[in-house]
Write a structure and sequence with these properties.
The chain has 124 residues and is of the alpha+beta class. It is 21% helix and 27% strand. It is built from two helices and six strands, in the order ββββαββα.
Length: 124
């Protein structure tokens, strides 16, 4: 019986789940895109529920390939958007607003001012 590693790649435009065997060979994968929102020039947002649901669906899809023997997954690794920001209500666990995506430029002028204040260079 083969053991697996579940890899979750939650990216800027899609979520992907891949089951690798212990030799590093990809055995099963699922991929699902989700919508990006551009409410104003330079703004980029995601619906947090879209992110969560696409991750759940892709993981479920690859796990069904194991004939309900989920204990064959030994470990899970995840990579995500890192700089994307999301806040949620501590009591309800629900998002307060859409996720602000790493590509969003609404704070760029503030960052430039802070860089001048600290005498550093902000990459563009």
């Amino acid at each position: 019986m083969t053991d697996y590693i579940l890899s979750i790649d939650q990216g800027t435009t899609s979520s992907r789940a891949i089951l690798f065997n212990t030799q590093g060979k990809s055995e099963f994968s699922a991929h699902e895109e989700f919508q990006q929102y551009f409410p104003e020039d330079g703004w980029v947002e995601h619906d947090p529920e879209d992110i969560w649901q696409t991750v759940k669906r892709t993981c479920t899809e690859v796990m069904t390939q194991l004939d309900h023997e989920h204990d064959r997954i030994n470990t899970i690794g995840i990579t995500n958007q890192r700089e994307t920001t999301l806040i949620w209500d501590r009591k309800t666990g629900k998002p307060v607003y859409k996720a602000i995506v790493w590509q969003d430029r609404r704070t760029s002028k503030y960052c430039e001012k802070m860089a001048l204040f600290h005498n550093t260079v902000v990459p563009r």
